[in-house]
Amino acid sequence: MRGKYFINTYGCQMNVHESEKLAGILREHGYTEANTLEECDIVVFNTCCVRETAEYRVLGNLGIVKKLKESKPDLKVAVCGCMAQKPGAEQALKKRCPFINIIFGTHNLHKFGDYLDLLDSKKYIGEVWDSEGEVVENVPVYRTSGVNAWVNIMYGCNNFCSYCIVPYVRGRERSRNESVILDDVKRLIGEGYKEITLLGQNVNSYGNDLADKEVNFANLLDKIANLDGKFKVRFMTSHPKDLSEDVVKVISSSEKLADYIHLPIQAGSDRILALMNRRYTKKDYLNKIDMIRKYIPGVGLSSDIMVGFPTETEEDFLETVDVVKRVGYNNLFTFIYSRRSGTPADKMEQVDIKIKKDRISRLIDLQFEIGNEEATKCVGKTYEVLCDEWKNGKAKGKSSCEKAISFASADDIVGKFVPVKITATKNNQLKGELVK
Ligand code: 5AD
Ligand code: SF4
Fold it and tell me: Which listed ligand is nearest to 54 at the C-alpha?
């Protein structure tokens, strides 16, 4: 045994899954999982740089590790992920935190094992590849997300929204081979996973870069839905300009494809959407929502929304409020726009932080109200729920349309699909009872 590892993950589901790959590589190299940071021999920071706050969190926690290393000098520290991939970040991180032992970027994650091998002979290994290269397969994965298994279908993004750093640190779109994905999903269902979540920065572009023009996201979903077994498929993230009617039709035609779509609008004002380089208007977006609801009544919808994008006026913001009111999302992920150097929006006229904070709190309050109304409408309805947590007679799970529901169950039913009738709601939380 080489020692124990502890992984700190920041950011999106893509990173959560990549930490499962880091854990897979560590285990292949003889490491086992530590329960706490204090007991580990190697700590890995899998970082995010989508907002400044994520970077501050990483730097703050690196400070804690610096102290720990004073009393535990053999502790090894590795930093990887999006923050490490930024141009010049490796040198800057090493200068700021000279105690770091390994720094690598998003494009060379699969090389982590080689760096672990070098740890005995080298004090510091820093390697950040500046281009994405081919999709790398067969990286070991140690899964930690219960009944759900994450499956990458593509990497990178070609969209260059003007506020976003992702295309700069994740490279251009690369799709995985369709048959490799299907084999992965088949194997995972065979292993007993009940929920498969397909991952990509923009899953609707799946296949665009492949030679075989028959391969696209709708066809992939259809093929997965035709695999044997009882399971649900989810995916994220979709770009509103690319989500096609074909995809929505496929979802509506199969029980196995969850009735849920995360469709980030970012902002409601056409002027702001144009400045963001989103390439759709508020009307286009609302039309798409109507189309989705036509095919999938009862669909669960969620969105990402940013407030305080450069030059956003109160009038612009009210357009966002209007969309939120009209759509009635299940769930909303709200963010304050954060300047990212190297992106076009960083050079635009910025909005005062007080105004940004005021707007986000108004949006959160509004969504809380809407969420409550939506939750109340569920009382009396019965949903098929996949149970993902059970402890001392208390079970939790989610419906196909991604409503989180808690209910009592005498038996441990994790991984089972059960009918649950909603009996009450409190603060947006749904409570129900098992239907016998
Ligand atoms: N500032 C704030 N939020 C951002 N996002 C992306 N870039 C930024 C930024 N510079 C948000 C978007 C995206 C989500 C993953 O993060 O809403 O959909
Ligand atoms: Fe960023 Fe836009 Fe790509 Fe999403 S689609 S990762 S917001 S550039």
Answer: 1
